[in-house]
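#struct-pred
JK: can someone run the complex with flavin mononucleotide? inputs below
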Amino acid sequence: MLKDLGSVPAVFPMPVLMVATYGEDGKVDVMNVAWGGICGMDKIALNLAPDRKTLKNIQAKKAFTVALADEAHIKEADFLGTASGNVMSDKFERTGLTAVKSSRVDAPVIQEFKVTMECKLEEVRECFGEMRVVGTIVNVLADEKVLDEKGKVDAGKLNAVMFDQFRNTYYTVGKEFAQAWRVGAPLMKK
Ligand SMILES: Cc1cc2nc3c(=O)[nH]c(=O)nc-3n(C[C@H](O)[C@H](O)[C@H](O)COP(=O)(O)O)c2cc1C
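RT: done, C-alpha cells with the ligand placed:
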C-alpha cells in the first residue's frame, strides 16, 4: 500500500560534495553540500543557505572546488557539514586535511580527496529563499589510483559516499551491476 509522506524532498541518493573556498583573508573553508549536482555538460549547481561562509567566499573569489567525499574521510566530511567557518576560525585545520591552491582557479584543492572539480563562478541567484550558485567546471583533477586502464574514473575504486535525506544517513556505494543505455535496449526492439 502506498502511503503519503507529504511534500518532502525524496531523491536518493544525494551526493556528498566537499566545496572548498578561500576567504578574503586567504583562509581555507570546506563545506558539505548534498543539494547540488551537474546542471549542464560543464556546469555544476549548488544550493546554499544564505548564511554560509562558503557563499561569502565564493562571491569574493568567484571560484570554488568540489570534491567527492569518500568512506575514508566520512568523519571529516560530516564535521565540515556541521561546523561553520563563520564562527570556528580553525574549522579546516581541525580536520587534519591538507590544501594546495588550484593552478586554474582561486580556490583550494584538498589533497586527500580523489576527484576534484575546479570551478569558476558563473552566477549566484536567489531562488526560493536559497542561493543558487552555478559554476563552470574548468578542469577535473583525479588521483591516478582511481583511474581505469583508459584513464577514466572507475567509480568502483572511489569508495564515494551518498547522502540519504530521508533518515539523515550516509551510504556507501554498492557494486556496478548494469551498463547505462544498454540494459534497457531490449525494450527498444519490441
Ligand atoms: C550531509 C549534509 C549535507 C548538507 N548539504 C547542504 C547543502 O546542500 N546546502 C547548504 O547550504 N548546507 C548544507 N549542509 C550544511 C552545511 O554544510 C553547514 O551549514 C556548514 O557548517 C556550512 O559551512 P560554512 O558556513 O563554513 O560554509 C549540509 C550538511 C550536511 C551534514
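RT: quick notes.
Residues 53-61 form the longest helix (9 residues).
Residues 3 and 63 are 43 Å apart (CA to CA).
JK: thanks, will look after standup
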